[in-house]
Amino acid sequence: MEDKEIAYGRPLAPDGTPSEYQEQEDDLLDKGKDGPKIYFFVIAILALLATNIYFYVKYKNSDELHTTVLSEKTQMETELDRIEVELDRVTKQNVELTDVLKVAQDNARIKIEELRAKLTQQELSRAELSDAQKEISQLRVAVSRYTKDIEQLRNENALLVSERDRLKISANNATEKANELEAINSELEHKVALATALKLSSININAFKEKKHGDESLETKAKRTDKLTITFSIADNPLAKKAIYDVYIRVIEPNGNLLIADNNIFEVDGIEMQYTDKTGIEFSNDGKLYTYDWKGVEEFKSGTYTIVLYTNKGTMGKGNIRLN
């Protein structure tokens, strides 16, 4: 027993078992052996925690960046929609565009399509997003300038239309005034024509029977009448031109028929009329008498003959004679 105590260096209890002191020492030895294991285990846990924190922060930032990119893309797409709506609104105003404005409109629409294509890409860097934002800002300025130009053009067109309408009204008023003046002038001309027309102041119609040696006698019997003698004078008319006038004679027999010869046509106020015979007179506005003998038929009929005298300006007057 003593050899065992010396060999192990451990005091034993009287019954040969390890004493309490020896058990405490054994526990300390066991704990000393487990110390390094706990140290490495703690380091491993800390390393794992650090790794998890790193990846958490990394992916969190990545998610936030992705969310930010999506938000910015959505905002830019919305801005493109607004720009396109404004462009469509201006285009629908039915303004006839100049060549410069047509080019500006085409360029704006091409730029909108290009930017939409860019924003549909899955991966866009911050630099690309920034460039797209700058291009959208430039596009907004260009469309705003285009809108102002269209508005100015529309206002100019409205002024031109207003001026055209004003000139049209003026032209219509001028036309109406010209037509009115023309009507007045025509009426005045008609009045002047009437005023200058020759009118009878007197007319006498007598029937004569011609005898031998040139003698003749008044007659009232139709069967003995050889001619009708028309004596007339012209009313005073200082407005009438002193000249030689054609006098057209229309003889209407008792049964109401107009006695005419072939192709005897004259015109009064644009109306063609037939006449029986014509003669010429020299008008001097001196009140003298004019005489005309008419021998138009081989045998006169009983009844009333009406004789109407005309110039090309209208009726001079008429007279009649009754033959038994």
Describe this structure in words.
This protein is an alpha+beta fold and 324 residues long. It has two domains: 1-167; 200-323, Immunoglobulin-like (Sandwich). It contains four helices and eleven strands, in the order ααααβββββββββββ. The strands form three sheets. Strands 4, 5, 8, 10 and 11 form a five-stranded antiparallel sheet that branches. Strands 2-1-3-9 form a four-stranded antiparallel sheet, with no helix packed on it. Strands 6-7 form a two-stranded antiparallel ribbon. A hairpin with a 2-residue loop joins strand 6 (265-268) and strand 7. The N and C termini lie far apart (210 Å). The model is unreliable at 1-9 (pLDDT under 50).
What structural category characterises the helix and strand content? alpha+beta
State the order of secondary-structure elements, H for helix, E for strand.
Answer: HHHHEEEEEEEEEEE
Low-pLDDT ranges = 1-9
What would the principal axes of the Cα set say about the shape?
A: rod-shaped
Major β-sheet, in short? 5 strands, antiparallel
Number of domains: 2
What are the SSEs and their pairings?
Elements: H1 2-8, H2 20-91, H3 99-119, H4 126-196, E1 200-210, E2 216-219, E3 227-234, E4 244-252, E5 258-259, E6 265-268, E7 271-274, E8 277-282, E9 289-294, E10 303-311, E11 314-323
Antiparallel strand pairs: 1-2, 1-3, 3-9, 4-5, 4-8, 4-10, 6-7, 10-11
